[in-house]
Amino acid sequence: MKKTNKIKKLILIFVMLSMLLTSCTLPGLGGNTKTNVVVATGSNTERQILGEIVKQMIEHHTDLKVSLITNLSSSVLNHIAMLKGDVNVVGGMYTGTALSGELGMEPIKDPKKAEEVVMKEYYKRWERYWYPSFGFDNTYAFMVTKKFAEENNLKKVSDLEKIKDKVSVGVDTAWIKREGDGYKAFQEIYGFKFKSIYPMDIGLVYTALASGEMDVVLGYSTDGKISSYDLVVLEDDKRLFPPYDCSPVASKAIIEKYPEVEETIMRLVGQIPSETMQELNRQADEDLEMPAKVAENFLKKNNYFEDLKVDKNKIKDYREFVEGGKNV
What we know:
CATH superfamily of the largest domain: Periplasmic binding protein-like II
Strand content: 5-15%
CATH topology of the largest domain: D-Maltodextrin-Binding Protein, domain 2
Number of strands: 10
Largest sheet: 5 strands, mixed
Number of helices: 14
CATH architecture of the largest domain: 3-Layer(aba) Sandwich
Radius of gyration: 21 Å
Distance between the termini: 34 Å
Mean pLDDT: 90
Helix content: 40-55%
Shape: globular
CATH class of the largest domain: Alpha Beta
């Protein structure tokens, strides 16, 4: 009952925010009559890189002019911008965020089911195409150094039970009391707790692990520091954390007007696995490369996925699934 009330409050806040913002134009939006397609991103590194990848792919494979909006700091603002028609495509959105945010639904632990529900609901409510995932999800993840993993034969989170009383574990401060997938839920699902656990700022966990201060930490699964420090992400084998699979989203209106946009987006499905996204984030955050340059280098390396044949039947099957309820 408490969780249901919380969801109702979130929906109410979302509706009020929508009413407030639909009456005004968001900063940096609209007014460019020479632009055919407007792509939006969030303000964090990962979503800016993905927005650039989508933008540059559309420009490479079509004759369309694309503008990029990078100042929309939350999924709610991206959603509202699409409602208003100021934005046609969002470079990257996450299933877990959409379920608990825009859709106001309970978390779904099964990744395939979560993606299917979001796909159908997004089309049903707003006539938007939530495309299949880029190939990665960005959620909380337990991780260790490669050396520590090899010494203790660690591959999945449940493997930590055998060393639970010997390890120092660093976690995001907010995670300790987080409902649904926090430390309490961890103990219920995995059946054990750590003897020594240290809450800290999420930005400090990686250096604490690399320096040897911590043996195990809880971070984000696509953080660039995973690649920088050559860390090993442990499999969440009992599905404590909801999936946050990342996908591009486009309005039905822009796809009907420019079908080539959909064909271009579908080239990216499954082409950015977690390890690749970690490396792209690392290049931006650690090497200080601009997101546009990171995206350009990635696309050039992969020849803009020109070698991938666009499967029209796959697009047809996807459309029938989201529009008519047919199974994928």
